[in-house]
Write a structure and sequence with these properties.
Elements lengths: L23 E6 L8 E6 L9 E7 L5 E6 L11 E6 L2 E7 L6 E5 L7 E10 L2 E2 L3 E6 L9 E9 L2 E7 L21
Antiparallel strand pairs: 1-2, 3-4, 4-7, 5-6, 5-8, 8-9, 8-10, 11-12
């Protein structure tokens, strides 16, 4: 269907607003007193999509979180093709959009016991839109065993124990050690 809008301009340019994304428009421009107007078809460009909606995060492991979200309310006049997840503007994951209403992605290789503020964006051929922000804290794990345990005899009834800290601290500094003494008869 065609809708017509006429405006009178005093100069050789005009800005037309209120157009739809990725729609074809025909414009006819005629000079005062001229019988034959100049005309042409023009296509408006898509815009970037709005942010994904209802972003939920679930911490899976000490280094993995899962994200679930719904497509943006406004795709910007073009199909959403990709979703991205970023942390401090560093891209963590880019994933193709699926045909499902609910979109999902799993972000791996995160640092243990760390707070993340993740930016989830929808992208179309015009680019990526504003982010939907979500926060998550990865889990702390247990440290590995201390290394290289040895002892120095101080007397017939006492030992002084030494050890190296574990190679893997579980994501947080080791602040205490539990020493269990067993009697072997």
């Amino acid at each position: 269907s065609e809708a017509e809008h006429t405006s009178i301009q005093t100069g050789p340019e005009v800005t037309v607003t209120g157009l739809n994304f990725t729609s074809r428009y025909k414009f006819r421009i005629s000079a005062e007193g001229k019988l034959n107007p100049a005309s042409g078809w023009f296509l408006t460009e898509p815009q970037v999509p709005s942010a994904p909606r209802q972003v939920l995060v679930q911490v899976r492991t000490s280094t993995t979180v899962s994200l679930q979200y719904w497509p943006p309310a406004e795709p910007g006049g073009a199909q959403v093709t990709t979703y991205t997840a970023a942390y401090h503007n560093a891209l963590l994951l880019s994933q193709e959009a699926s045909d499902d209403q609910v979109q999902r992605m799993t972000v791996t290789n995160l640092t243990r016991f760390t707070n993340y503020s993740l930016a989830v964006r929808a992208c179309n051929r015009a680019g990526c839109g504003n982010p939907a922000m979500v926060t998550a804290a990865t889990l702390q794990t247990f440290p590995a065993a201390p290394r290289m345990l040895w002892a120095k005899a101080l007397s017939l009834r006492s030992l002084h124990l030494f050890w190296e800290p574990p190679v893997d601290d579980g994501g947080a500094q080791v602040t205490q050690y539990t020493v269990l003494s067993l009697i072997h008869i």
